[in-house]
Amino acid sequence: MANPGAREDAGDHDPIAHQITTRQAIKQNGRMKAEEKDDWKGRNEDRSPDDLDSAVCGLGLAIRRKVIRPYIDARAVAVPRDEG
User: Fold this and answer.
1) Residue 22, Cβ neighbours under 10 Å: how many?
2) Is position 3 within any domain?
3) Within a domain: residue 69?
4) Is the pLDDT of residue 6 over 90?
5) Strands (DSSP E) along the chain, which ranges?
6) From the CB of residue 82, how many other CB atoms can be counted at a distance below 10 Å?
7) pTM of whole model > 0.85?
8) 3-class DSSP state for residue 67?
9) Is residue 1 part of a domain?
């Protein structure tokens, strides 16, 4: 079952968009996990989601090297209030 909110043409233009919107999330032992690569390949003409895997690995490396931060500490950011 594909992601019901996914655009059908996402893979026509961007392989990462296709891979991220068609890979299923599976609940296992109370935790969410990504569908196994072989299962995804079986539904996608035996292609591998290598583009998505590379993007996720690159993002993880950037976070570990502190090139990017995975969150913004809410205490460090002043959010203006609408005095309306």
Assistant:
1) 19
2) no
3) yes
4) no
5) 25-28, 31-34
6) 4
7) no
8) coil
9) no
Query: Which residues are 32's β-sheet partners?
Result: 27
Residue that has been written with the tokens 């990504």 in this structure: 34
Q: Residues near 3 by Cβ (< 8 Å), separated by ≥ 6?
A: 21, 22, 24
Residue 19 class from Cβ within 10 Å (0-12 exposed, 13-18 middle, 19+ buried)? buried
Task: Tokens 């460090």: give the residue.
Answer: 76
Structural domain harbouring 25:
10-76
How many Å apart are CA 49 and CA 20, to the nearest integer? 9
Residue 23 near residue 52, CB atoms below 8 Å: yes
Query: What total number of domains does the chain contain?
Result: 1
**pLDDT tens track for 26-70:** 888 888 888 898 999 999 999 988 998 899 999 999 999 999 887
Structure tokens, 46: 């035996």
